[in-house]
Design brief:
Blueprint: H1 2-16, H2 19-39, H3 42-77
Length: 78
């Protein structure tokens, strides 16, 4: 019975990794994520997203008008 448990542990380690490695890996990922987030200026990011959405809203009517023309061009290429 003990050998069966040993096989289960090896299979579990193979499939899911060892617990120590997984915990260490999670803390490393958390540290990297925290470091990355500390470098991001959220105000600047949100301002850029707002600018992109404003430009998109301004071009949206033109995109709707050009869409049928682009469909015709793409159909001809095929």
């Amino acid at each position: 019975m003990a050998s069966n448990k040993g096989k289960h542990d090896r299979i579990s380690d193979f499939m899911f990794g060892t617990k120590n490695h997984r915990q260490h890996s999670n803390s490393d990922e958390h540290d990297k994520l925290a470091e990355l987030m500390s470098k991001i200026d959220l105000d600047q990011l949100l301002n850029q997203v707002d600018s992109i959405m404003t430009v998109y809203d301004q071009f949206k009517p033109a995109i709707k008008q050009l869409s049928p023309i682009m469909d015709i061009i793409l159909k001809r290429k095929k």
